Amino acid sequence: MPAATIPLAAALAEGPVVLDGGLSNQLQDQGCDLSDELWTARLLADAPDQIEAAHTAYLRAGARVLTTASYQATYQGFAHRGRSERETTRLLRRSVELARRAARGVPGVWVAASVGPYGAMLADGSEYRGRYGLTVGELERFHRPRIAALAEAGPDVLALETVPDTDEAQALLRAVDGIGLPVWLSYTISGERTRAGQPLAEAFALAADVPEVIAVGVNCSAARDIGPAVAVAHAATGKPVVAYPNGGEWDAATGGWRDTPFDVAAMVRDWRSAGARLIGGCCRVGPPDIARIAAALGHL
Predict the structure, then answer these.
(1) Cross-referenced PANTHER family, in alphabetical order (predicted)?
(2) Known binding site for Zn(2+): residues?
(3) Taking 50 as the threshold, does the pLDDT of residue 198 lie above it?
């Protein structure tokens, strides 16, 4: 049974909820080797205890939403490693079970099943560009089986995250139609546009009338871009906003990170004022950062 006693959407109506941070950086800090195309998803098979330990670290820091290690877990990706469809389904379910296990006995914790973009499966930085050359229908067919498997595992919410363009957003929204779970839709952006260059107001508006969507917003983006995007997301949809930036900037050209320090406490208060209700971190944001976010929001 879910650890949380009320639906996440109801909790958002009462005030902000703290998300966790980057799973990959925490796993690396724990000594895990992520130099693999499956990235964190490989550990679902090889080191599930490490994933549970990472979830626990964020829980202790004040996170109340734990995001599963399924971002890069796809049927196609695991098939390339010789795993059957049945095995992949089992690993997707395990991602939810590990987060549930970490949250056991702690009240008011929700599990978000991560649904990463098509580009994550390619493992070539495509999620920072979008426009894969696929139709909306082809993208929907890619996402639908994984979404169904994760939904059957019983998370509290599906996190449709790091979406680089509106074509993929449309595909994902089609795939969750009638799924029976709330979802959030979160774009990765550059300035005032999606990574593929579409205006954010148009991108967010796609989710405005979708009943499954309880929040829209941005993740895996530079912190300086979050505040303006939160305001646009709230204005375009009237829904609560989700915001979880990177602790740096990814340079797709060099395949490396540029450090861009930011004042967590000051920023999250501004994001909250602009409509953000799910606030945490993405890549390179660890438990100490989440503890500061929780403190800034009055959760500690």
Answers:
(1) HOMOCYSTEINE S-METHYLTRANSFERASE-LIKE ISOFORM 1 (PTHR46015:SF1), ZGC:172121 (PTHR46015)
(2) 220, 282-283
(3) yes
